[in-house]
Amino acid sequence: MNNGQSSANDEIRIFCKNISEINSIDDLKELDKIFFEYFSRDTSTPKFSRSVIDIFNSKTFSGCSDIGMMMATILREKGIPTIYVETANVDWLNKEINNLPGHEVMQGHIFLEILLDEKWYLYDPTFHVVYDNYDSSNNNYPRRYYVFAKGENANSLGVYNVKDERTLAISKLGNYDYNEYVDPNYPEINLRTPKLSKTLVH
Q1: Which of 28, 44, 69, 140 makes the best surface tag, with the fewest CB within 10 Å?
Q2: Is beta strand 129-131 parallel, antiparallel or unpaired with respect to 140-141?
Q3: Domains and their CATH numbers in the chain
Q4: The pTM is what?
């Protein structure tokens, strides 16, 4: 559902109606192109605080959180069940938990879980990648990220700024042992290649 921070207005719905139906991974390739032609990066905007209407009207994103929330809203408007996922880098977690140098700035990333043709995939819209053979019960994510929250959007998880994100991550993973991380090695589908192809992540 698109509610609160994820709520679409008439302008967003018109934008979505002009996008072809999303029925397969191949359709995501065209959506990826449309999205990044319409939106551009503006790192001066605060993360997590804006609604998708704000993001859409500005035609800018601050980073992966804005991209993830905006893309989630678009996918839901196209009838694709989508879950917003907050993750933390396990090496940063180790530094944070043990108060080691480099812990000052949180290292996290936003992914999406999407349901296409009755199959769940892991989607990283920021890096234009879909992961196949996804196991939603496995909190180990590619590139040494670990899940700490899933929901509709950032605000639904109690995240309104980067401080909130950090607090939530530590409240969920404060006892995490980074040695427990195991790369899931999901087959990777790159949406920016001329022809879609699956390659194993190493």
Answers
A1: 44
A2: unpaired
A3: 4-200 (3.10.620)
A4: 0.92
